[in-house]
Amino acid sequence: MRNLIELIKKDFKLLFRNKSSTLIFVLGPLLIVLILGFAFNSADLYGLKLATYSQQYSTLTDGLLNKLSSQFTIIKTATQQACINGVKLSEWHVCLVFPNGFDIKGNNNIDFYINPTKMNLVYIITNLISAKVGEQTTEISKELVEALLKKMSFVKDEVDKNKELLANINEATVDIKDRSSRLYDKFAALNISFNETGLNTTGIEEQLKTLRINAAKIGTAKENISDSEIKSIISSAYTNVSSEITILTSSITDLKDAVQSARDTLNNASSSQVMAKTSLATTLLQLDNSLNDINNMSSSFAVMQEQLITGLDASKLVQPITTSIKEVTTEKRYISFIFPILLVMMLMFGGIFFGSSLVISEKTSKAYFRNLIVPVRRITFILSAYITTMIVLAAEAGIVFGAVYFFTKSAIRPDLLAALVLIASVFTFIGLLIGYISRNSEVAMLLSIAIVALLMFFSNLILPIETIAYMKEVAVYNPFTIASNIIKESMLLSIGYKAQLKYITVLFSYLAIAFISSLLAQKLSKRHV
Amino acid sequence: MAGSILKIENLKKSFGRKEILKGINLDIGEGEVFGIIGMSGSGKSVFLKTIVNFWKPSAGKVMYKNADTKKFAFRKHFGFSTQESCFYPELSVEENLMHYGRLYGLKGKEIKDRIKNLLEMLKLESCAKQISAELSGGMQKRLDIACSLIHKPKLLLLDEPTVELDPILRREVMNLISKVNKEEKVTILMASHLLGGIEAMCSNIAILHEGKIIKTGNPSRIREEYGKNEEIHIRLASGNYKKAEKQLESKKSSFGINKIITNHLLTIYCKDAEKILQHILSMLKNMNEKIVELHVSKPSLTEVFTSLIRE
């Protein structure tokens, strides 16, 4: 214990004797945190420029640009190429190209040109633009849907009206059909044939012929009548009979004509009856079909009635599912969100860089050989380096938390301190390990930079780890990611450590691995002196 | 002499396939100053560091007072000063001593007194508060030795303690080491390839060559036993050695001369300097050469070392 304290005292003496190193290692991480903190003290984006090009700006395009102007500075370019080139040359952040004849009914595809090399900004910008365009689209959609709903409502009303009418038509048609049917039946039942036997004049003509013959005989016979009176009577009778026969013949002829005419008429009537029957049958058929059609129309109208849902809210149709983003934390400033990351960054930079440089300075020191032959266990040297680094990190964290308390009056929870100690220990031992495996300060520095860069890259800092295709499973176990999550969840979301047990266990594993590796590396790294 | 403080048995050390120490056996007595001499790359540093278990031996063992040096407790009994000074340059002299004293378990008045003693012994009082990086080379070496002695070890290992020091500082450090040996009663095991001060300081030496000890013993005895040539050094007033060299070359076999070297003086290697000196002086007198300096020395350790290595 005494040796440990002596080694730590010696480390601090050396640290304060070398003022430039002290400044770099102690104040460096602090500066990073403070500068980044001030810089990112807001969630807003500033100075975003959006260039647009359209052959002809319309109300629609202007409306959209108006919406975007709240977040972007809008610049209208003369040509499309100028717009795109501006993105490449970083004159503006994004270029919007409206198609010729931009219209919701026709050409409605807007092209966004972005610079994918600015990955961190791309997502924010595309999200912003998508949100604004989405808003505008929603408004337009709402208007369209409202118009549609109006028409639907109108159609439903018309359907309702016409359904009634259709019912009436149906009724009338049915009535017509019935009547037609009855008419048809009556027609069918109508017997317009007649028995010509009764009107057959042949017998009458025969009889008339006979009568004529007999009259002629009478005429002839009368001549033979001497009795003048009788002859006169018979001649008068013969004359009467002859005139009657003539009249009868004429009547018969008339009758015959009338019969013929009647026959003809009846024949015509019969034909007409047939035609009428046929026509009625066709009409009945057509009436049937019409009734069917009317029924179908009625059914369709009924279906349409059912399908035509009115009384809907256009906004709900356009956005059937709405979302509201509720924040689980009351923090409003961006600094609050990135503070946990900054804190972990500070511990990481400090632990790795300072830890490794402490070991390297010991290894390259003139006193290296003597330190290896004094009666002090090797583990004591490792522990002294660890404790020295932890004290420096504690001082840095103390300054940061002091500043936080000064500005926000929010105190730090004791359990958060335990988490910070664990996180700082992990990074410190990683730093010590780097120091022990490096031959000199240059190698140690390069290795530290490489490892810090890797840890930062495979975390949520630069890109979301969900976008890392193949290394995602590894990135999840990144100590930087885990440490940031623990601090974030603890500070901002007030999640207790029981819920974070998995993370904490992983960190403890890393701590054990780094510690044992440092011991081994120290043993194997004996420098030829 | 007291008993053995350090016993090394068949010590071997390899780095990968390269065998550096190939089985070393040594016995170092308590209180002596023992020198390990060898060329650069012979394994001296590895040997010392293997003794203190900085490098784990591949085979063999090292016993400190019958206790294995692999035990952690052994660390309290030895001090080590390396070729390059080993302390924190950013800390002051006092802070370095305080730091290492505490690591060795000293505390309170004990450590303060010890620091005071060391500063006096090693003449560092004037710069006690000075930052170590600002000290001169000699001062830094003294501080390094002080850090090695803060905990009053019984065994002090010195790896090339005088390399990169000028001759004056070198002598100073050597004197210091002798002083430490006498005053602190510390057994010193010193490795060096600079043979200059070794013979005077060390009671025993071991010659390390290609990972093996090829000779151990008292440096004077080794020199006498293995030294092939005595040396006669003559400086002539004329500064012209060519003529003399030519003359001596013609009389090489008769004089029993092994080698003649002329540089800025005439050096003659021979078996028996006493025997031929008269002849050489006569010859030079006949040549009307005036002698400015004359020096006869027994075979040097350097020569012994060189010849043993070559064998």
Task: Tell me which CATH architecture of the largest domain in chain B applies here.
Answer: 3-Layer(aba) Sandwich
Number of domains of chain B: 2
Q: Strand arrangement, largest sheet of chain B? A: 6-7-8-3-9-10
* Quaternary structure: heterodimer
Estimate the mean pLDDT confidence of chain B: 86
Uncertain ranges of chain A: none
Strand order of the largest sheet of chain A: 2-1-3-4
Question: What is the tally of beta strands of chain B?
Answer: 14
Overall 3D shape of chain B: globular
Helix fraction of chain A, binned, reads over 70%
CATH superfamily of the largest domain in chain B: P-loop containing nucleotide triphosphate hydrolases
Largest inter-chain contact set: A-B, 23 and 26 residues
Summed up, the domain count of chain A is 3
Number of helices of chain B: 11
Q: How large, in whole angstroms, is the Cα Rg of chain B?
A: 23 Å
Low-confidence stretches of chain B: none
Structural class of chain A, by secondary structure, is mainly alpha
**What is the CATH level 1 assignment of the largest domain in chain B?**
Alpha Beta
What this model shows, in words?
Chain A has 17 helices and 4 strands. The mean pLDDT of chain A is 80. In chain A, strand 1 (49-53), helix 3 (59-68) and strand 2 form a beta-alpha-beta unit. The two termini of chain A are 28 Å apart. Chain A has 529 residues and is mainly alpha-helical. Chain A has helices at residues 2-17, 19-39, 59-68, 80-88, 119-189, 196-199, 201-223, 228-307, 314-318, 334-363, 368-373, 378-408, 414-437, 441-457, 472-476, 479-491, 501-524, and strands at residues 49-53, 73-76, 94-97, 111-114. In chain A, helix 2 (19-39) runs antiparallel to helix 10, helix 3 packs across helix 5 (119-189) and helix 13 crosses helix 14 (441-457). In chain A, 25% of the residues are buried. Chain A has a 4-stranded mixed sheet with strand order 2-1-3-4, sandwiched between helices. Chain B has 311 residues and is an alpha/beta fold. Chain B has 2 domains: 4-220, 3-Layer(aba) Sandwich (Rossmann fold), CATH 3.40.50.300; 227-310, Alpha-Beta Plaits. Chain B is built from 11 helices and 14 strands. The mean pLDDT of chain B is 86. Chain A binds chain B through residues 2-3, 6-7, 10, 13-14, 17-18, 365-370, 372-377, 526, 529, and chain B through 52, 54, 72-73, 75-76, 78, 80, 82, 84-91, 95, 99-100, 102-105, 107, 147.
